[in-house]
Design goal:
single chain, 558 residues, 6-stranded mixed β-sheet, 8 helices, 36 strands, rod-shaped
Length: 558
């Protein structure tokens, strides 16, 4: 017997006992005859009192998946009748009226994992019915590996890797090494300004020498136009991390249209002036093509021509130029230079050096000196000279006056001129005069004199040089002879005077001490009054100077 049935039986027995103890005669509707209940007739019961119920409520109990339930109802404790209402007016005659049938399905909970599934093995999920507390199980399928890539990015110092690992069991399926970034280069680190943007290409190579795709990095500030140093920032992404900076330069434009023209002991350069990205120019020159020990000259931007002077005579020089631009960077001014232009080769003009000796001096020096190097013969160092028969002028005055005018004319013609003396108050011996010309390596040494004779009628110009047999300077005979010839011929032509010829002699100490081509010009005879007056005439002196200068031109033209 079920637990609920026992409860109802107990309640019924309790009602009977209570009835008997109370003497409820009306509880029976009939009479006992021969041990059997016999119903009273209508008349017998007509006057019987109305039955009274003592009702007890039975709460509603829902049916479950294990047992039936019941509705809410009331049961009389005395007679055991059941009613639908508390007033006892709606009697229940069939038990099925109060019964709620058992449910057809369990009410399972959400389930609990009682055995966890792994990547390769099944698990178990257990459900419990909230009504009957019975349980059931289901299999949880093996999850299978759930791989996830974990990236450790490579840098310029360390390699990276990609690990394919199961997030459930931790199993590593695959590991890929990412070589570190080894080399980052620009396609060019030096450009020449051209007014356009310059943008070097970036190349990145890993430790294995493999080029890294551009999708793994971003280039910033990769373009520039003006002269200076420009930074390119390369920032890595994806499989790589970090950033590096590479730099490239833009230099000024080279000097163009460079031309070099030889000058007297120098040269002149011309070039195309630049107006953009240029602060100035640098000129460099040297006597060797490697420019070792070269001299440099800085020129302003607006300059397009420069003459270099005071160089060596008839000497080859190598010349080149470049531009420069001053740029302020990081608070400091930095100078950027262009590439050098092509080197130019130029020879300075062959400017001849002529040494002029205005003969004699205000006071002679009668002390003796050898007539030549190592000679035993001696003569006076220097005489004061003669004087004019008509003008009374001393020779030393006339010779210096003509020599100074000759200096001016030869300089105008492009010669370099060295004067032995420019005043009268000197004391220079004949050997010392020769030494001045020798030490300067003069290309020609002309000694200006005026002649004298006891015969006042003698006139005309002569020149004097050594003989071929001269023991001291015979090596210079041919040159001295040719110089003497050209000076005399052109002097006579210019002045219209008599040609007295060339006197070859080895008695002149001023010639014997020479190691350069030399001649003595006797312009005329101061002992001849007419010629004396002519040589002091300024117009005639101009003709004399022209004749001597023409002779020099002719000598060097040969």
């Amino acid at each position: 017997m079920k637990k609920g049935t026992w409860g109802r039986v107990a309640a019924l027995l309790f009602s009977v006992v209570l009835f008997l103890s109370c003497g409820c005669e009306a509880a029976w509707a009939g009479t006992i005859v021969d041990g059997k209940e016999v119903a009273d007739s209508e008349e017998d019961r007509e006057d019987a009192p109305e039955e009274e119920h003592f009702l007890v409520k039975t709460e509603r109990r829902e049916a479950t998946c294990a047992e039936e339930g019941n509705i809410e109802y009331w049961t009389c404790e005395t007679c055991g009748k059941m009613f639908l209402d508390e007033a006892g007016t709606q009697e229940i005659t069939e038990k099925t009226e109060i019964t709620l049938p058992k449910l057809s399905e369990h009410k399972w909970d959400g389930g609990k994992v009682t055995k966890k599934a792994s990547c390769t093995k099944e698990g178990t999920l257990t459900y419990i019915c909230s009504m009957c507390k019975i349980s059931k199980t289901e299999k949880i399928p093996a999850a299978g590996h759930r791989y996830l890539d974990k990236l450790t990015r490579a840098t310029t110092k360390k390699q990276g890797k990609i690990v394919k690992r199961c997030t459930v069991c931790g199993k590593v399926s695959k590991q890929t090494v990412i070589s570190r970034i080894k080399k980052i280069t620009l396609s060019s680190v030096s450009y020449t300004y051209n007014g356009k943007m310059r943008a070097p290409r970036v190349k990145v190579v890993d430790a294995k020498g493999k080029k890294i795709s551009a999708k793994y990095y971003v280039v910033k500030n990769g373009k520039a136009k003006n002269v200076g140093t420009h930074a390119v920032k390369i920032s890595f992404r994806g499989r790589y991390k970090g950033s590096v900076t590479r730099k490239f330069k833009i230099k000024p434009k080279k000097v163009s249209n460079l031309k070099v023209v030889p000058e007297k002991k120098g040269f002149t350069v011309t070039y195309k002036r630049q107006s953009k990205q240029c602060s100035g120019y640098q000129l460099q020159y040297a006597k060797n093509s490697k420019f070792s020990g070269a001299a440099r000259i800085t020129l302003k931007r607006g300059v397009s021509k420069k003459t270099v002077e005071n160089l060596e005579n008839s000497t080859v020089y190598y010349v080149r130029m470049r531009t420069f631009k001053k740029v302020k960077e990081h608070g400091k001014v930095k100078t950027y230079y262009s590439a050098w232009s092509k080197k130019k080769k130029v020879r300075t003009k062959d400017v001849k050096l002529i040494c002029i000796d205005a003969g004699h001096q205000q006071r002679g020096d009668s002390s003796l000196e050898p007539i030549g190097p190592g000679a035993s013969s001696q003569k006076a160092k220097v005489a004061s000279g003669t004087s004019g028969a008509a003008t009374k002028r001393p020779e030393y005055q006339l010779t210096l006056e003509v020599s100074l005018k000759l200096q001016e004319e030869l300089t105008r013609r492009g010669y370099d001129v060295l004067m032995v003396r420019t005043t009268h108050d000197v004391n220079i011996s004949n050997s010392a005069r020769a030494a001045i010309a020798n030490n300067a390596r003069a290309d020609a040494f002309i000694r200006i004199h005026a002649n004298s004779s006891t015969n006042a009628g003698v006139n005309g110009a002569i020149t004097i040089c050594q003989t071929p047999a001269n023991a001291y300077c015979g090596a210079y005979y041919s040159q001295s002879r040719r110089l003497s010839e050209q000076i005399l011929a052109n002097f006579v032509a210019a002045c219209g005077c008599k040609n007295g010829g060339i006197w070859e002699t080895d008695t002149m100490s001023g010639i014997n001490w020479c190691t350069v081509p030399v001649t003595i010009l006797e312009m005329g005879y101061m002992s001849n009054p007419s010629e004396d007056r002519q040589m002091s005439d300024s117009a005639y002196q101009a003709r004399m100077v022209q004749g001597i200068a023409n002779g020099m031109d002719a000598y060097f033209a040969q």
